[in-house]
Amino acid sequence: MEPKWLTWAKEIQAIAQTGLTYAKDVYDIERYQALRELSVDILANYTYESKERIRLSFAGEGGYSTPKVDIRGVIFQEDKILLVHEKLDGKWALPGGWADIGLSPSEVAVKEIAEESGYQAEAVRLLAVLDKKFHQHPPEPYHTYKMFILCRITGGEAAGGVETSGVGFFAEDALPELSEERNTAEQLHTMFQYLHHPEKEVILD
């Protein structure tokens, strides 16, 4: 579970962003701006990031505040799961990334698999929709929903991409060091449950 200070910072930022979107009164606008700055102060106090960078990445959006969506493609082959080697932290993850405007979740999963692993794929079914706050991910400034979509390979061959340097299939009892910002060991073990029990219902937490 995420630390309370992070939950509070996110909630304050969301209130401020939504308030600034709809507020008309100059005094209300000032109050919402003060709340947004408070959320920045909280993050700056508990992290090593500068206020300027936090404002740009965390407190710079407009419109009604909504969670971000992260989509991961899940592919099994010979009882092993497909993972890609992330250049950013040198660890392993399911292929995937932020949802793109104009693409469906299935289209995003297929696109990310191609870009990060070299394989062409097709989406089969939704496996899980998880809220990152309920899982043991490192703290981050965004409220994020994670969608896990089962896919099957239709072509292509293993190849790294702009963000990845390697591709591999791993057994459940031989997982490599995972990029926990992207996926946890518990989540991968949950995905393996769908390999052994294809009838398992979608998980929604």
| Total number of beta strands | 9
Radius of gyration: 19 Å
How can the largest sheet be summarized?
A: 5 strands, mixed
On the 0-100 scale, what is the average pLDDT? 93
How would you describe the shape? elongated
Order of helices and strands: HHHEEEEEHEEEHE
> What is the structural class?
alpha+beta
Strand content of the residues, in percent? 25-35%
Q: Which blocks of ≥5 consecutive residues have pLDDT under 50?
A: none
User: What is the percent of helical residues?
Assistant: 25-40%
First-to-last CA distance: 13 Å
Strand order of the largest sheet: 5-1-7-6-9
User: How many DSSP helices?
Assistant: 5
Describe this structure in words.
There is one protein chain. The chain has 205 residues and is α+β, with helices and mostly antiparallel strands. The protein has five helices and nine strands. It has helices spanning 4-22, 26-46, 51-57, 105-117, 185-196, and strands at residues 68-74, 76-77, 80-86, 92-93, 96-98, 119-131, 144-156, 164-170, 203-204. The strands form two sheets. The chain has a five-stranded mixed β-sheet with strand order 5-1-7-6-9, with helices on one face. Strands 2, 3, 4 and 8 form a four-stranded antiparallel β-sheet that branches. Strand 2 and strand 3 form a beta hairpin. Helix 1 runs antiparallel to helix 2 (26-46). The radius of gyration is 19 Å and the shape is elongated. It starts with a helix and ends with a strand. This is ADP-ribose pyrophosphatase YjhB (NUDIX family). Keywords: Hydrolase. InterPro entries: NUDIX_hydrolase-like_dom_sf, NUDIX_hydrolase_dom, UDP-X_N.
